[in-house]
Amino acid sequence: MLNLFQLKEGYRYNSDSLLLYDFISSFNPKGTLLDVGCGCGILGLLLKRDFPSLQVSLLDIQAKNCEIAHANAIANHLSIDAFTCKDFLNVTFENKFDSIISNPPFYHKGGVKSEKDTLSLSRHSSALPFESFAKKVSKTLCNRGYFCFCYDAKQLDSLMHALIQHKLNVEDVCFVYPKEEKEASLVLIRARKNSKSLCKIHAPLFIYKNDTFSERIKAIFEKSQTKSLEWMD
C-alpha cells in the first residue's frame, strides 16, 4: 500500500493519475525519469515502487506540493534522486532524462478557473501552456527519450501539432471513455524524441460499465494500491 498525504482543500490526485501510471508501467520504464508537476508525488512514487532501479526526480512549481511529495517518499521508504521546486519552463538541468512524465494542468482557456491559486496552478493549462511545455520537454530529454502524459482528449489536434513541431513523435495513444456510449474524455500519449515509428492506437479504456467500474479499471486500482491521508501542517 502506498500511503499518500494530501492537502484537504488543495489539488488531489484522481483516476487520471492512476490510469497514466498503468499506461507508463506497461512500457517498463528504465534509466532516469522526471515527473513534472508531481503534486503529492503519486506518479513518480508508484513507478519507483514498481521499478526500483528507476532514478526518479520530482518537480513541482508549488513549495507545499514539494514538501508533501518529500514526506510521502520518506513515509513509503522510497529513494528519490531529486526534488525540484521551480517552474519547469525556467529550470536548467545538469543532465538530460530518459523519460519525462506528467499529468499536467489541461483545463482549456474556455473553462472556469479555480478561485484558489493553488488549484488553478494544478488544473488550468495557462499555468503550463502545452506548446511551451513540449518545447521544454524536447530540450530536456535525451535523444530518443520518452514523454508520457495524459490530457483532455478534445485538444488532441493542438497536442499533435506541438509534439511534431518539437520532434516528439507519438508512438502510443490510448483513449479513455467514461462509458461506451460517451465521447473520449482523456487521452494517454507516449511520444519519443526523434523517432520515426508509426503510431500504435491501443484498445480503449472504459471507466464505467453498467454504472460500476469496469473490470479493467478495477484491476488498475487494485494494482496501484494507494491510500489518501490528510496532510496536517
General description of the model:
The protein has 7 helices and 13 strands. By secondary structure, it is of the alpha/beta class. The chain has a single domain, classed as Vaccinia Virus protein VP39 (Rossmann fold, 3-Layer(aba) Sandwich), CATH 3.40.50. The mean pLDDT is 91.
Named CATH architecture: 3-Layer(aba) Sandwich
Overall shape: it is: globular
Q: Report low-confidence residues grouped into runs of 5 or more.
A: none
CATH class: Alpha Beta
Percentage of residues assigned to helices: 25-40%
Radius of gyration, in Å, reads: 17 Å
Percentage of residues in strands: 25-35%
Can you count the beta strands? 13
Q: What would a concise description of this structure say?
A:
The protein has 233 residues and is α/β, with parallel strands linked by helices.
Q: Which key features would you list for this structure?
A:
233 residues, alpha/beta, Rossmann fold, nine-stranded mixed sheet, two-stranded parallel ribbon, 30% helix, globular
Topology:
Elements: E1 2-6, H1 15-25, E2 32-36, H2 42-50, E3 55-59, H3 63-75, E4 82-84, E5 97-102, H4 117-123, H5 130-140, E6 141-152, H6 156-165, E7 168-177, E8 186-193, E9 200-201, E10 205-206, E11 208-209, E12 212-213, H7 215-224, E13 226-230
Parallel strand pairs: 1-13, 2-3, 2-5, 3-4, 5-6, 7-9, 7-10
Antiparallel strand pairs: 6-8, 7-8, 11-12
Helix pairs in contact: 1-2, 1-7, 5-6
